[in-house]
């Protein structure tokens, strides 16, 4: 068996964002958000389920999953493999924008339903937090009462989850293990063989994918690789720019102190021509 990476944008949508696997999504949401009893989700409606359209759109044009439950509460789920600057601000923006877009012209604020934003991250966002999952609410600063339930955020940091197959106890354990490890397996792990977990594994199995779907999956990998390469190049350029700036500062101080051009060139790594140019600039 060969399983595809569920954290790939296209794979994530196929597994967790389709009518065919609705039970998978319900189980995932209930597990991650710790919904039980009357609070449990029993039915959802996807708000962006047209599979071909999802595959054709770029990641920055559409949320990975957007759905609503039987009570009207909306859930947006975003999977992010590469660390990006200000991701926290981005997901808050997504949540606030989704909340505001519920209202049409002249509609009353009473029509607004709560928004829960879930982020599955393949990087560490909160280095000071020990747990792999954190849920953020709007609380009263003094009493910690949860009066405003309009916006809440859940973050799952996959690198922090280290449980092995024989250590999986809860449904949450199993979902996080599935997200992090199923593409490294050559068989369905015993804890994932039943119910919604079995469905998810089947949806992730390469043999169940059409060529069109698999091509979209590979295109997503290429896009992610290109973005990573661009980020690394930008970082390298930024480092070089910073190093050059520091060298110029040292050269300037050295020139003012009366050191000769050749010595400064050796100290800073700047060319003799650059130091001469800097010297001329200081004189003028």
Global geometry = elongated
Number of helices: 9
Structural class computed from helices and strand pairing: alpha/beta
State the distance separating the first and last CA atoms.
72 Å
- Biggest sheet descriptor: 6 strands, mixed
Helix content: 40-55%
Radius of gyration: 25 Å
Beta-strand percentage range: 5-15%
Strand order, main sheet: write it out: 1-2-3-4-6-5
Q: What number of domains?
A: 2
Return residue spans where pLDDT drops below 50 for at least 5 consecutive residues.
Answer: 49-62
Write a structural description:
β2 and β3 form a beta hairpin. The protein is elongated. 45% of the residues lie in helices and 13% in strands. The chain is built from nine helices and six strands. It is of the alpha/beta class.
Using brief descriptors, characterize the structure shown.
single chain; 284 residues; alpha/beta; 45% helix
What is the compact description of this entry?
This protein is of the alpha/beta class and 284 residues long. It has two domains: 9-209, no CATH class; 243-283. It has helices at 9-16, 22-33, 51-56, 87-100, 171-181, 195-204, 211-256, 261-268, 272-283; strands at residues 44-46, 65-69, 74-80, 115-121, 133-138, 148-157.
């Amino acid at each position: 068996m060969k399983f595809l990476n569920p954290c790939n944008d296209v794979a994530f949508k196929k597994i967790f964002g389709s009518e065919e696997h609705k039970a998978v999504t319900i189980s995932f949401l209930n597990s991650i958000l710790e919904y039980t009893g009357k609070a449990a989700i029993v039915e959802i409606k996807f708000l962006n389920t047209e599979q071909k359209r999802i595959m054709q759109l770029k990641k920055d044009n559409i949320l990975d999953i957007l759905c609503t439950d039987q009570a009207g509460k909306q859930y947006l789920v975003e999977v992010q493999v590469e660390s990006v600057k200000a991701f926290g601000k981005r997901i808050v923006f997504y949540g606030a924008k989704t909340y505001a877009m519920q209202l049409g012209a002249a509609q009353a604020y009473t029509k607004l339903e709560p928004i829960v934003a879930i982020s599955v991250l393949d990087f560490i966002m909160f280095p000071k937090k020990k747990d792999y999952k954190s849920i953020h609410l709007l609380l009263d600063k003094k009493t910690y009462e949860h009066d405003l339930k309009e916006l809440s955020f859940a973050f799952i940091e996959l690198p922090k989850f280290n449980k092995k197959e024989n250590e999986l106890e809860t449904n949450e354990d199993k979902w996080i293990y599935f997200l992090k490890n199923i593409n490294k397996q050559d068989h369905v792990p015993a804890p994932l063989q039943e119910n919604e977990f079995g469905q998810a594994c089947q949806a992730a199995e390469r043999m169940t994918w059409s060529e069109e779907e698999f091509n979209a999956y590979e295109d997503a990998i290429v896009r992610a690789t290109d973005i990573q390469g661009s980020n690394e190049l930008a970082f390298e350029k930024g480092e070089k720019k910073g190093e050059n700036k520091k060298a110029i500062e040292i050269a300037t101080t050295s020139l003012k102190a009366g050191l000769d051009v050749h010595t400064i060139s050796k100290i800073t790594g700047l060319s003799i021509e650059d130091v001469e140019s800097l010297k001329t600039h200081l004189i003028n």
